[in-house]
Write a structure and sequence with these properties.
Length: 457
């Protein structure tokens, strides 16, 4: 049996695939299958057996680790394809172990904490016929860590339960199983948003798996959602390459899913000629998100534009008022022509950490435009409210009103009539004139009493 090279870091010299397969075949040869796993054609029962904890190997193409592996390769050099060729080596397995231990301790799915408390494996690992862990990599890493930490207290993890897939299981079947199991809710730690999309892209573009298969495995409701997620990944990678100059530095955007999802949606909705400049603006805002904070809440291009013409109006107003570009003074929508758009794109592409003022100014311009829209819409809003009030009055009957309510209604109708005549530019009729005279007399009487009390003349 292979022995650990280091009990502190669990660097294991794995068996060869052939050795692992032979050991697993013997372990399950007399076991009745009773563990269900999902396959494209439906559920299938697998045999479960106990094997030494150092037999299984971590899966390199683990959807949970894709971004981390890219980050490691960015710092150390090399490629994922090269790493795949050494997946069974002690060095690569040690790398996977370190990454998986961090995930096992994640408070959102605290596998290590549970295993430490229970001192019992409650669910078998799912392994391929040659011992590669398809589901349960975090659990295996945690059990190995606990066993190395205290061999006596955690002797229960010297042997681990594994459900073994048949040798006929294809790579496509394995992708399906991983996606189906990891998408299940319960206490699973969700894939990071970048990892999920990297996994999807590999399945669709590299492995050329059928789209219907991918939709089913990931419980994606429609093909358009799949396209959106792939487009969001492409947008994020463009940000890393063009804006940060750090391709595959996925850790830099781990907290920015909502921004890239929203930016992709809004860019897709605006006219193509405006997309490049607003992409540059969106990238500048994302790069400055920690400094801008709440200022980005409800702001285009992360929310739908208000008014609808805002993508063009805001650029023109910003150019005119903040950059003093005279060509932007016209209110013609086409005034934001190609030359100005190129200039604005270059301007925001060049915005660095010391140029947040430009983003503040643009956000302020958009706020002003929203306020102007609200002011312009107020007459329409008022008329809608009047119409709704009239419709509600239609449902009333006179006998339902109390005397006090009748008086309130009478005075409100009179006030509305007076204001309506003013807005319409119409002369009041005699009845309103009479009411007005009565009101003036009442006010005059009030003024006299007030003056009398205050000693005025």
């Amino acid at each position: 049996m292979a022995k650990p090279q280091s009990t502190n870091t669990q660097i294991i010299e794995p068996m060869t695939p052939r050795e692992r397969q032979d050991r697993l075949t013997r372990a399950v040869e007399s076991v009745t299958p009773d563990f269900f796993v999902p396959l494209p054609e439906g559920l299938r029962k697998l045999p479960v057996a106990q094997v030494p904890a150092d037999l299984p190997v971590y899966r390199l193409d683990n959807g949970r680790l894709i971004a981390e592996l890219h980050e490691h390769l960015r710092q150390t050099g090399g490629s994922l394809d090269t790493l795949r060729k050494t997946a069974d080596s002690a060095e690569t397995q040690a790398l996977l172990h370190r990454l998986l231990i961090a995930h096992a301790a994640d408070s959102r799915g605290p596998i290590e904490q549970e295993l430490r408390r229970l001192r019992q494996q409650t669910e078998p690992l799912l392994v391929t016929a040659d011992g590669v862990v398809l589901n349960g990599n975090r659990r295996l890493a945690a059990m190995r860590k606990l066993l190395a930490e205290d061999p006596d207290a955690f002797a229960c993890y010297e042997q681990v339960a594994v459900a073994v897939l048949p040798a006929s299981c294809t790579p496509a079947d394995m992708e399906f199983i991983e996606a189906a199991l990891q998408m299940a809710p319960e206490t699973k730690l969700r894939y990071g948003w970048v990892n999920r999309r990297l996994k999807l892209r590999r399945q669709v573009e590299d492995l050329h798996l059928p789209r219907d298969w991918v939709l089913n495995a990931y419980q994606i409701t429609d093909s358009e959602q799949l396209d959106r997620e792939l487009a969001e990944l492409k947008l994020a990678e463009t940000f890393l390459t063009d804006r940060l100059g750090q391709p595959e530095h996925y850790a830099a955007i781990a907290d920015a899913e909502e921004f890239f999802v929203a930016l992709n949606t809004q860019l897709d909705a605006i006219t193509p000629r405006l997309r490049p400049v607003w992409q540059s603006i969106g990238f500048a805002m994302i790069a400055a998100r920690s400094r801008l904070g709440n200022l980005l809440n409800g702001v285009f291009p992360f929310e739908a534009p208000q008014p609808k013409q805002l993508p063009s109006l805001a650029l023109r107003r910003f150019a005119q008022d903040k950059l003093h570009v005279e060509d932007a003074a016209t209110e013609d929508d086409q005034a934001t022509g190609p030359a100005l758009l190129d200039d604005l794109r270059s301007f925001f592409d060049g915005c660095g950490d010391d140029d947040d003022g430009a983003l503040h100014d643009l956000i302020e311009v958009m706020r002003v435009l929203r306020e102007e829209q609200r002011e312009a819409e107020r007459p329409a809003v008022m008329l809608q409210r009047i119409r709704r009030a009239r419709q509600q009055m239609d449902r009333l009957s006179p006998e339902r009103l109390t005397p006090e309510q009748r008086n309130i209604l009478r005075s409100e109708v009179a006030a509305i009539q007076a204001q309506a005549n003013h807005l319409l530019g119409e002369h009041p009729d005699n009845r309103f004139e009479q009411r007005k005279t009565t009101m003036v007399k009442a006010v005059s009487g009030y003024l006299k009493r007030w003056r009398a009390r205050s000693g005025g003349s």
